[in-house]
Every structure is written in C-alpha cells, then in structure tokens.
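Problem statement: downstream parser choked on a complex file, so we are re-checking the raw output for the zinc ion run. The parser issue turned out to be on our end (a line-ending mismatch), but while we're here, posting the original submission so the record is complete.
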Amino acid sequence: MNDLRDLYREIILDHNRHPRNFGELPDADRVVEGVNPLCGDRITLYLKLANDTVQDIKFNGTGCAISVASSSLMTERVKGLPATDVMALFERVHDMLTTGATDADAEGMDKLAALAGVREYPARVKCASLGWHALRTALTAQDDKISTE
Ligand code: ZN
C-alpha cells in the first residue's frame, strides 16, 4: 500500500511539474474559466469538439499542485473520448473524490486513481475537482465561468 501511495505521489508531482496539454487552444469551441476561491486555484479550460468527441483540450492557469496535476491528468485522459464517456468518467471521478470509492471502483481509473488520496484532505477535494467541473460545464455549455464556492 505504501508503494502505491508513493507511486500516486510521484504521478501528482510529475503532472504538477510538467503539466500535459498546458497552454491555449486558439480554435477552441468552448472556453471555461474555473476558480476555487478557497485555495486560489484558477484555470482556463479550452475544448475543441468534433462529432461530439473531444478532439483537443488544453488548460492554463495557476494553482496548487493538486489542481494542476488533476487538470493535467484529466486532459490526458479525455482527449479523443466521446462526450458521453467523458460525462460518465466525470461521475466516477466525482464519486471517487467525494464518497470514498473502494479499490474496485478505482479499477480502470489508471493514473486518475492517484487523485483518490485527496479524500483524506477535504480542503483539497475542490482543488482536485476544479478542472473536472470546468470540463463538465464546457461539455454541457451551461456557462463560461464556474466557481467551486
Ligand atoms: Zn488548490
């Protein structure tokens, strides 16, 4: 279990130091700004859709290690996925972060399982979910701004 924790910590640190898909997407179809006032995390999510599939996705902004790593892991995972799969994944991640998913629930989560550890730090759950809420908002086109508060 300690080995797994170390692995998860490494994943978070790596994605914080070298965020994937970091930057702007000039031809994005949707742009959503997300803020987490509690921690001071701010991200802008850029999404390009084609045939209801995530053709490209990028994000930029500033925030704590958890918010940056979570958004980085998210963009890496959802690129190329149909919107319906992304929404299903959002629900699974949301459950994992908020309700204490079991190991069985983490199956197939791959690197995203690294985020499960934040459950032990309630103040960090909003950091980890910020990018995901921005993504859901981008897909459902509800708004162009979200706040975790
Ligand atoms: Zn944060």
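For whoever reads this later: Residues 36, 39, 41, 63-64, 66-67, 127 surround zinc ion (CB under 6 Å).
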